[in-house]
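User: These chains co-purify. Model them together.
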Amino acid sequence: MFNEKRKKLIETLSSEQQRDLKKENTTISNNGDSISQNLSGLKKIQDYLYEIKKDIQNEARQINWEKSTSEIMQKVKIEGDSSQSTAKGFLNWFFKAPYKLGFAVVSIIAFGFIFLFLIERNGPMDEQPIIPANSVENMENTLSKNETIEYLRQSSIVLSSIANMPTNGLDNDLLKLNAKHARSLLLKKKYFSQNLNNYELANAQSVCNQVEYLLYDISQIENSTDTDSLNNVRNLIQDKKIMLKIKLVQFELTNKEV
Amino acid sequence: MVAAINKISNEDLIKNEIISKVREGSHDAFEEIVKSYQKRVFILAYGILMNREDAMEITQETFLKLFKSLSSLRDDAKFEPWLFTIANNLCIDKIRKNKKLKLQSTSIDDIPEGVAIADQAPEDEEYQENLKQTIKNTIHTLPVRQRTIVVMRYFQELKFHEIADNLGISLGTVKKLHFTALEKIRARTLKPGVFNNV
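Assistant: Joint model of the two components:
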């Protein structure tokens, strides 16, 4: 009963809707010319769009696609390879096969058991961290100190060799050897110079800087004819009492708890 | 019919095999993909950006990005939509970033209505060229999504449902946006009745 009423209502509504649609259609059709014009306009726009497509295809024909392919492949080889080695790629590979996933789960469980077993056996871990926070800093300072002592020791050998060289009959080979040592020490200084920024190594830093200038001059002297430069370095070593300063700093660093 | 189905399924199989080889890191397989699709990607990018150099750049970037992200593609059947989505997104980024393009692009208000009519005869070659250029400029002023739909429909000759798949929107929306885009181009390009004489 209810369904019949519902059907009739739907039919009535549909017929009303259809009537409205027909009415609307007739009204629009009275203006048929403009509709056909609009349609023709749209059709022509579509034709022009296909024309533009031909232009683009012509543009595409002018491109050397083989060259483009090789360029892409080059970039892929350079950048793609590096991205493949990322952790993501590894995980993708690892979890791709089900047996690998199973292996991962079993491994995690096994590690868990081993971890629990060790805790049970050794008792709970101390709350205190194993390495105190300041010990890392101390370690770094000690390393810096040792590096500085070693640097000064090697520098003093080069400087004393230059200072004690006989004035007459300079040995070219010895000069070259000293210049080589000086260069390697300069390079070394470049790497550990930031360690000298520690305020407790302030004295050492000052002496190291003076030594660095001298080493630079020595690294430039490779010929016995360059006596002026050599004498200049010797005078500086003497006037500035560089050897004494090195000894004092070495003593300070060796006996001081940095 | 059966032969056609077989051909399609064979093509799909080959494509799937190539994709799985790329996933395993095969550069040769990836080169096959580049060769097969780079022209289509270029046409899409060129249609959207209307600039050859930018389109080439986008084409190369698309494949680079594709290679990096192909391992995360779960359904091989969606490879093409995936590829064109990458290209489309890169084009959108380019439009946003490229100030030069912004300067070059003409505002819709700058294009006088019915500009193509001018005083020239519709048969005139120059007239035809002007009209084409005006349509190109107008495409360039369309919102990016409408522009992409026009490009996919007319320059790549995709069907509406394929466009819907590629852009991840409903078929109805594609048709509506397509019609709106054409209406805009028509309104901005032609005076009503201009083709009566054509």
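Residues 1-105 of chain B form a domain with the Rna Polymerase Sigma Factor; Chain: A fold (CATH 1.10.1740.10).
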